[in-house]
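Render this sequence as a predicted structure.
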Amino acid sequence: MTNTSPTNPARPVWLKAIAIFALIFGTVTLFSSSSVLFGPEIARTSAGAYVPFVVWFNFAAGFLYIAAAIGIWRAKPWTFILAALIALATAVTALLFARYASAGGNFEMRTVGALLVRTGFWAAVAFLIKGR
């Protein structure tokens, strides 16, 4: 039987799934960005025309993704704010990236897609967990 007392509210399966996905997303983000920032030259070469400020943002955000995943799993009320802030910060980074690219900066098209996916994912998470 599920305990639905105020100290141990039941978490829907979809909320747990979001937490697991966010944890995987954060772990992969940390691994990929740290490989480019701190790894061997081949990692930077494989990344192509990466944009350093975007990679640094992703590295920092990876820690927040993991914190959010843990908070979502534990149904903490602050996770909505964190998810919304992650979405907002990613959107701001995307705008700065767009400015950089439109000024002629060298970049990979996959960066455009990655920023859109990250912004959309965290906006969706914030929407889904609002009020939970």
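Summary. The CA atoms of residues 98 and 104 lie 10 Å apart. Helices lie at 13-38, 41-47, 52-73, 79-102, 109-129.
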